[in-house]
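User: Here's a protein and a ligand (zinc ion). What would the complex look like?
Assistant: Let me lay out the input and then the predicted complex.
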Amino acid sequence: MSATKDFRYLIPERIFNEITQKAAEEYPYIIHGWLFADRKENFGIVSKFIMNQDLRRTKAHVKPRSWMRYKKSKIYNMRKFKQEMGVDIVWQWHSHPSGNEKLHQIDKRILKYLSNGVMIIVVPNLPDKELQPHLVGWYYDKRYTKKPIIEKMVFEIISE
Ligand SMILES: [Zn+2]
């Protein structure tokens, strides 16, 4: 999975509404999940999301209790989902009840430890708290360069 310039990310409106609503229901907690997508030519099309039962909800970003276990669990689950569900792409997502679409310092530390990966940030749909529903991805790669490559993945909302 590489973030190339001509690659486009699409999310059906129904899934966008459901995931930003789920994040709103759990406000003010940060919640974690998995996001699945199918690859069609140069498109990544989101097909489904589920919760990640391995990571408990918290009110603030917390460091993994074991970095190695975090990495092993991520690799194990991604492999399992790809095999069992036949999905092309598996990403991790978590919510930012703060409304900030940027990576938190702890998010960056996790990506640095993994050295390569994607983090999807979901901003809850909470007009009362002045939070606009939003979903964005961050592609991180420091395998081949001294300075990490960090690319923003903009999702286009599509109606089915
Ligand atoms: Zn975060």
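Summary: The first strand starts at residue 8 and ends at 12.
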